[in-house]
Amino acid sequence: MQPSRTHLVVSLLLLLALCVSGCTPIVAMPATESSKVASAPARAISFGPDQLDAIWGSSAQDIFAFGYDGRILHYDGAKWSRMESATVNTLEAVWGTSGSNVFTNGDGGTILRYDGTTWVPMKAGTYEYLVALWGDAEDNVFAVGDNGRIMHFDGANWERMESGTPMRLFSVWGGSPRDVFAVGVQGTIQHFDGTTWAPMESGTHNKLEGVWGSSVSDVFVVGEKGTILHYDGSTWSPMESGTSDPFTEFTFVWGSAPDDVFAVGHEGVIVHYDGSAWMPMESGTSGNLECVWGTAADDVYAVGAGDTMLHYDGQSWSAVNHDID
Question: Which of 6, 31, 115, 291 is in the most buried spot, having the most CB atoms within 10 Å?
Fold first, then answer.
């Protein structure tokens, strides 16, 4: 038998009375950190309007820093100033041969070149997100990024290369025109022998985010889950990272010598390699660090989230005041 309309109305009124008197209404609330469940520690998202992603210079008195919204900062040895960049796209990387020949790249296939006076957009030949740059001469420059994209500049034009992988590439470095390495997701390491890009066996499926070497037989790669690999000219081998957190995410690596190498990453992590072992350093920040570079062992910079810029003087890391008037 179907209930009467009167019966339904009475039931609804009783239910309403119970809720008003004692029930807690079911309301969708924003998730809090304590309510989130994950298989690994949560990592802060470092991408944002005050993030710096790259730093490089031709000398200690001529340094460039790059980041979100096309931001380019320049240091002349006395103060930092903002430069006109000709783009609002995020800029991810930098490489140059001198203060009057500097390249940067980033979102939407953006590539800019600085001639000592002005930043000029270049025809990249792609709209893919370009994440990294490296070259050994102004007519031999490589740019890498999403979907295995590798572009090459011959001094006149950017042309697409067959990369041999569909994986996103995060970093590129070479010891010579015939020994160039590009690294990316799922343990991808591609090697260029001057003619062809081909895969290398990395021994890991972890995301690889940075590559640098002192020579073609002394190459370091860093990435997620505390991954640090070393190449001796024939084989890639894992290294102990010097961190206690198995979820440490390294983002970049650079050194001034084989026994003076720095790796930076999320949550302010910095480790240093002295030729024998990696050891943690006190960074003074908990923000994500995206890049490390220097002019010497006692003149090293690291940049990252929250507009973070740090300087190492050979003894300790300290924050850099780079406020723009």
Answer: 291
Q: Which of 50, 33, 51, 31 is nearest to 42 (CA)?
A: 33
Q: Locate the domains of the chain by residue range.
A: 45-319
Q: Which residue has the higher pLDDT, 218 or 8?
A: 218
User: What's 66's DSSP letter?
Assistant: E
Q: Phi/psi of residue 246, each to 5°? A: -70, -10
Q: The whole model's pTM is what?
A: 0.84
- Alpha-carbon span 194 to 178, nearest angstrom: 4
Q: Which CATH architecture has domain 45-319?
A: 7 Propeller (2.130)
Task: Give the DSSP letter of residue 108.
Answer: G
Range with the poorest average pLDDT among 4-13, 145-154, 310-319: 4-13
CA 162/CA 148 separation, integer angstroms: 9
